[in-house]
Amino acid sequence: MAAALDERAAGGGGGVAVWPDEAPMPPVVEAPPLRLEDVDGYELCLPLPRRQGRAWLWLGPHEDGQPTEDDEIEALQDVARFAAMSLEHARLSRQLADRARLDSLSRVAGQLHSHDLKNRLNDLQFLAHNLEGHKLEAEDAARLVDAIRKVTGRMQMLMQRLADPRAPIHPDLRPLDAGELVRRAVRARLWPEGVRVRCELPELPPVAADADLLTGVFETLFDNAVQAMQGQGELRVSAVPAAGGVEFLVADTGCGMSREFMEQRLFRLFSTSKEHGLGIGLYLSRRIIGAHGGRIWAESAGEGKGCTFHVWLPLWQAEAKEAEK
Predict the structure, then answer these.
(1) Which of 27-41, 92-106, 252-266 has the lowest mean pLDDT?
(2) Can you give the C-alpha Rg of the chain in angstroms?
(3) Could you tell me whether strands 233-242 and 195-200 are parallel, antiparallel, or unpaired per DSSP bridges?
(4) CA dist 97 to 84, 92, 100, 164, Å?
(5) Are 186 and 260 spatial neighbours (Cβ–Cβ below 8 Å)?
(6) Alpha carbon of 184 to those of 188, 203, 225, 297, 320: distances in Å?
(7) For FRET with 102, which of 69, 232, 261, 282 sits at 20 to 30 Å CA-CA?
(8) How far is CA 68 from the centre of its chain?
């Protein structure tokens, strides 16, 4: 008998957990009926009471093929209500734990920001300012100044995000050649010798994006890919026009992810598969892409089989209107 806990409409990035693993994924339905017809693998769909959003418990037919009786359904509904209360209790406990970790992280970030790291940022900014006035080869000076400013800008942004990962994100949306932005990010990065990078980016229409925020997202994806491959493997970066926007793909040949991790933990705050990870990078990446009106998701054939992250961004409005004509 198959079963599935469906929290896709519950908010907070909920997913679907199925049992056993080979059970089919239930369809996305606005308001499924209690008794189902023509739904592969499932006979019943029991609503689960929630304080926010909606959730359902999908149940497969009896092993003997007999339909579920009304009195059985009534008993199952009681069980579903009890399960919903248990899930709500677990959810609240997790939220309290997250708040405690967030408070600790904010304190650490505040201390770093107010002491050594803040001083080093000021030193680098001062150096960048003064290098412009000294006698250096123009090309070398420009490259050095640009590199220092990029580093300091990203460090400042990181500290702000660490201080409160849940703070509102307000991107400065402009028409952006995101393909060129990704090419520059690939060229500027110091890749491990064992990592082969294939950048296959065609000419693309401009998207509506904040260049600084979007750069941070792709650098997070590159960081994760290099760590997943442990410095050995191939990274493929590509893009295609898709459904009124542009879809970027960052594919690695690393350790991959389990279906359970992707459905239940990926993109959640403080959720990480790394031994020393904080579980913030992908959480922030999803919030940043969401603030752009885009989507980010991942695919993996399983542990040890690599992973592909997809980032979809909408076209710049003027470009989209032109395309409709």
Answers:
(1) 92-106
(2) 24
(3) parallel
(4) 20, 9, 5, 16
(5) no
(6) 6, 14, 17, 23, 25
(7) 261
(8) 40
Tokens 């509102």 locate to 168
On the question of pLDDT at 100 being above 80, the answer is: no
Judged against a pLDDT cut of 50, whether residue 276 lies above it is answered with: no
pLDDT value at residue 145: 66
Within 10 Å of residue 9's Cβ, how many Cβ atoms? 15
Provide the Cα torsion 29, 283, 292, 216; round to 10°: -150
Under 8 Å between Cβ of 240 and 179: no
Residue-level length of the chain: 325
Residue 202 pLDDT = 92
Sign of CA dihedral 154, 155, 157, 161: positive
Pairing type for strands 44-48 and 16-19 reads: unpaired
Q: Give 194's DSSP letter.
A: T
Tell me phi and psi for residue 307, to 5 degrees: -155, 150
Angle between helices 211-229 and 281-291 (to 10 degrees): 150
Name the token pair of 203. 């000419």
Residue 133: which residues within 8 A CB-CB, separation 6 or more? Answer: none
Cα–Cα distance measured from residue 210 to residue 108, given in angstroms and rounded to the nearest whole number: 28
Residue 113 has pLDDT above 70, yes or no: no
Q: Is 150 left (phi over 0), alpha (psi -120 to 50) or beta?
A: alpha
Which residues neighbour 17 within 8 Å (Cβ) at sequence distance 6 or greater? 4, 5, 260, 263, 264
